[in-house]
Amino acid sequence: MDASDNPDSAKPPARSPRAGYRTTGPVTLRTIAEQAGVHPSTVSRALKRSAGGDETARRIREIAAELGYRPDAAAASLRTRRSGAVGVLVHRLTDVVQAILFEAIEQTVLELGYQAIVANTYDDPDEQQRRVELMLARRVDGLILADAHTDLTYVDWVDSLEIPFVLVNRHAGDYPSVTLDDYLGGRLAGSHLADLGHSRIAVLGGLPHSSASTERAAGCLNALRERGIEVDDDAVETTGLDASTGREGMRRILDRRPDITAVFAVNDFDALGAVIALREGGREPGADVAVVGFNDVPVAEAAQLTTVRSPHATMGSAATRMLMDVIDGRHVQSMRLSPELIVRATSCPPPSP
Amino acid sequence: MDASDNPDSAKPPARSPRAGYRTTGPVTLRTIAEQAGVHPSTVSRALKRSAGGDETARRIREIAAELGYRPDAAAASLRTRRSGAVGVLVHRLTDVVQAILFEAIEQTVLELGYQAIVANTYDDPDEQQRRVELMLARRVDGLILADAHTDLTYVDWVDSLEIPFVLVNRHAGDYPSVTLDDYLGGRLAGSHLADLGHSRIAVLGGLPHSSASTERAAGCLNALRERGIEVDDDAVETTGLDASTGREGMRRILDRRPDITAVFAVNDFDALGAVIALREGGREPGADVAVVGFNDVPVAEAAQLTTVRSPHATMGSAATRMLMDVIDGRHVQSMRLSPELIVRATSCPPPSP
DNA sequence: ATGAAAGCGCTAACAA
DNA sequence: TTGTTAGCGCTTTCAT
Questions:
Q1: A272 and B93 in contact by Cβ < 8 A?
Q2: Least C-beta-crowded within 10 Å: which of A18, A28, A271, B73?
Q3: Beta bridge partners of B340
């Protein structure tokens, strides 16, 4: 583990001759062609189909491997007009939901022989534009936007660029998208709380520009209304995506409405923040107050949080395949996946008076 | 929000003539040169220095903007042998620490006129190699590895590639790195628990191949030993990076050692998992049992978790600058940043017998 | 099946 | 300052 057995480790990177065939400089098709005594174009063809072929092809591939040949993506891209890369724009990767989405997208994209390039836009329109421009400069073959706003300025602009793209996680307009049925998810949460017998319910509503947030809240509110339960405006707060905003929002609601017996947060981190604020206020979630979150992020199970599960990995890979269809000019149709209610220990009936 | 006011939104991407100068096909330097009546190389030069210049340069930039010119990064890269991209390899982005690091790296890299490309390797050697190879195919100008293993196979191999690289978050061998002084951080945690009066302490030790995990645990153990406090092997568990592994590890320790009065976890999510396991075991963290985590991730404050703060954003941007130094052939020296103990509500003395 | 030749868009000599 | 020329490494006609 000490570096003393590795005396070269501190040396700065420097060009130096290597063993084997290699003499100097980078290995290109021409290098291989010279070694093999054939034309570069023959090497190109032999390397294209990675298996099979005749005697010559096999020899060429052997030499290429021996020399440590690495195809130059830039050169290929320049020639073919395809970069083999797709751009992914997310709100921000410190939001674990976006990170899960990206991991799924990356994996699917790799399976299909592409590479994924991700950019954080922080939901800021200037940053969205800047990052899309950079993606275009890299000549990505398509774009997956996880950061669409319900306001169409952004997505309409991307559409005008005439680059293939799909939306994921949030929908906007009727551009092709893969999303959860967030409205239904909100309904599941609202119905669950109503079934438990609650009637004084608080809502932590998330980001106003995100279809995911607004539809979850709307679904919950409508499901409650159908049961004759009204959620007053002073029991609703908009929040961000982390526990601190959820905690603060919950505190404000508790100040105004100490009588509430249940909370629905449109994402799990806000729900965890609410759990903390409730404990600070002397109430035990799952005993005195019911809490329902949304997403079923990894920490939710450990926290025993009732939540609405969203199949983020499935969404990511479905969006990737949909993008490939758009790239290939096939017809695509937006998908809405189904949410699932996961009941855990933070569910409880209202305390008996 | 409905698409009826946006009848074009559903149409598949298709080449179509646009307004203004543009006639057909993509806009290249030649297109602009023809419009301006100059040679393409003149356009290239005029566009390079984005401000100032004479009359001609100004006119050229105007035309470029009007035509919506987007430089082709692949073509420039092919010519200059520099891609303007740096590769970032992380354990996985769903680990919020890695996501924070990447956000900082991305931002710094953008300020310096580069673009960042990130890859999840899941700490798997095969994946590490595969993703580095893909980075090389993209001809990245340098690599930032956040997923180094203490076993040197991986980093030695990267070194043999003769591409500039630095390590961040974990160090290995004596390759240039920006890390926290994890050992000292562990000592802070251990000393804190000893100061509170604890002597029966459990440790959740993280990933064995990560210098960050092992040194944090070692620092804690050594600080305790110096005070005459031994941590028995049956009070130690290795864990992953999320709350569920922390919860399980804590449960196993509680089964064997119900007498422990304090826990140190080498990362906050394991600590949160421990908090949950303790509550399930009928003990209140911060009252019956002290819990100390590590990293000070965003949720830690909301959870009132005592922890050791690591300046991840600073680490990310320092590593980026260090990489630039390596790329430019300047001498660099590894950095170790200082941890800071953040005392919150999960700190408490042992219960009086 | 292989070779020859051209060219993707850009930049960096060099020349004027 | 501007134009000329050449070429980065690759793919893809076309001809053999």
A1: no
A2: A18
A3: B309
Mean pLDDT of chain B, nearest integer: 91
- Nucleotides on chain C within 7 angstroms of protein Cβ: 1-13
pLDDT digits (tens, 9 = 90+) for A159-216: 999 999 999 999 999 999 999 999 999 999 999 999 999 999 999 999 999 999 999 9
- Does residue A60 sit within a domain? yes
Q: Are B29 and B44 in contact (CB under 8 A)?
A: yes
Beta carbons of A159 and B9 less than 8 Å apart: yes
The answer to whether residue B280 is domain-embedded is yes
Query: Nearest protein residue to D11's C1' (by CA)?
Result: A79
pLDDT in tens, B22-68: 345 689 999 999 999 999 999 999 998 777 668 888 999 999 999 99
DSSP at B217? H
What is the arithmetic mean of pLDDT over B199-204? 98
Number of domains in chain B: 3
Question: A86 Cβ partners below 8 Å, 6+ apart?
Answer: A105, A109, A114, A115, A116, A117, A140, A141, A142, A143, A144, A320, A323
Q: Let me know whether B16 and B31 are in one domain.
A: yes
Q: What CATH number is attached to the domain comprising B39?
A: 1.10.260.40
Provide CB contacts within 8 A for B228, sequence distance 6+.
Answer: none
At residue A125 the predicted structure's pLDDT band, cuts being 50, 70 and 90, is very high
The answer to whether residues A122 and A53 belong to one domain is no
Q: Closest to A139 (Cβ–Cβ): which among B72, B276, B331?
A: B72
Question: What are the tens digits of pLDDT across the range B242-300?
Answer: 899 999 999 999 999 999 999 999 999 999 999 999 999 999 999 999 999 999 999 99
Beta strands in B122-217 (DSSP E): 142-145, 165-168, 177-180, 201-204
Residue B349 lies in a domain: no
In a domain, A348, yes or no: no
Q: Are B203 and B140 in a shared domain?
A: no
Q: A186-223 in b/e burial notation, b at 16+ Cβ within 10 A?
A: bbbbbbbbbebebbbbbbbbbbebbbbbbbbbbbbbeb
Across the interface, whether the CB atoms of A74 and B139 are under 8 A apart is answered yes
CB A333 within 8 A of CB A305: no
CATH code of residue B123: 3.40.50.2300
| Å separating the CA of residue A84 from the C1' of nucleotide C7 | 20
Report yes or no on whether pTM surpasses 0.85: yes
Q: Which domain holds residue B119?
A: 82-178+312-337
List, for residues B134-156, the tens digit of each pLDDT value.
999 999 999 999 999 999 999 99
